[in-house]
């Protein structure tokens, strides 16, 4: 049989392990920062792609933001849904589409644990784009209960062998 499900064909370019070469964080309420991150997209032959990420402090190398989830594709379409649990107390359902070598998604639903830190995240907009065979870029904008939609993350990764 095939090593992957036909449904994920439009997402095959995303599969693999990616390690950041340059990660930049920004938001109007915080000082700009740098970070490192590794993300991984894998498949077990199901009509979805499994996702995990961990980020670290550039000098201390300590763990920071962690995510775990699934990038689903509606079979036979380019419509995607990204289900993500974030270690700081959120879950997000992001939806959008894959067009060529770019996935673009906007949050449809965000849930928070009752004691999550304020401000609340009210919207996420993100893209993953393959810049060339070995280079992936993620750009993430967010809106919070106190700040309108602004860029929070921009990061470039290289494919790990
Ligand atoms: C701050 C959300 C990913 C690092 C924040 C804040 C929010 C937030 C709501 C507080 C902003 C404010 O006080 O106005 C998110 C969401 C993410 C995400 C929803 C992913 C979808 C990341 C990643 C890193 C990161 C990958 C990388 C290390 C930081 C840092 C701050 C911050 C350093 C400032 C200090 C702090 O508040 O902890 N983020 N973040 N974030 N974020 Fe993110």
Written account of the structure:
With 161 residues, the protein is mainly β. It contains no helices and 11 strands. The chain has strands spanning 16-27, 30-34, 36-42, 48-56, 63-73, 79-86, 90-99, 102-112, 121-132, 135-144, 150-159. A 10-stranded antiparallel barrel has the order 1-3-4-5-6-7-8-9-10-11. Bound molecules: protoporphyrin IX containing FE. Protoporphyrin IX containing FE binds at residues 25, 27, 29-30, 33, 35, 55, 64-65, 86, 119, 121, 124, 140, 142, 144, 147, 152-153.
Order of helices and strands: EEEEEEEEEEE
Ligand inventory reads: protoporphyrin IX containing FE
Going across the biggest sheet, name each strand in turn: 1-3-4-5-6-7-8-9-10-11
Instruction: Report the principal-axis shape.
Output: globular
Please outline the major beta sheet.
10 strands, antiparallel, barrel
Which structural class do the helices and strands define? mainly beta
Descriptive key words:
binds protoporphyrin IX containing FE, mainly beta, 0% helix, single chain, 161 residues, globular, 10-stranded antiparallel β-barrel
Summary, kept brief:
The protein has 161 residues and is mainly beta. The protein has no helices and 11 strands.
């Amino acid at each position: 049989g095939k090593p992957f499900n036909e449904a994920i064909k439009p997402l095959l370019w995303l599969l693999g392990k990616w390690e950041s070469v340059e990660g930049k964080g920004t938001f109007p309420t915080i000082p700009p920062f740098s970070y490192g991150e590794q993300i991984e997209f894998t498949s077990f032959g199901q009509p979805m792609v499994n996702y995990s990420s961990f980020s670290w402090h550039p000098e201390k190398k300590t763990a920071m933001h962690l995510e775990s989830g699934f990038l689903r594709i509606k079979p036979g379409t380019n419509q995607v849904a990204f289900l993500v649990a974030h270690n700081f107390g959120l879950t997000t359902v992001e939806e959008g589409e894959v067009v060529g070598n770019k996935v673009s998604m906007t949050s449809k639903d965000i849930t928070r644990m009752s004691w999550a830190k304020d401000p609340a995240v009210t919207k996420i907009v993100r893209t993953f784009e393959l810049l060339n065979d070995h280079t992936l870029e993620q750009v993430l904008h967010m809106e919070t209960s106190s700040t309108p939609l602004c860029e929070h993350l921009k990061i470039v990764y290289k494919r790990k062998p």
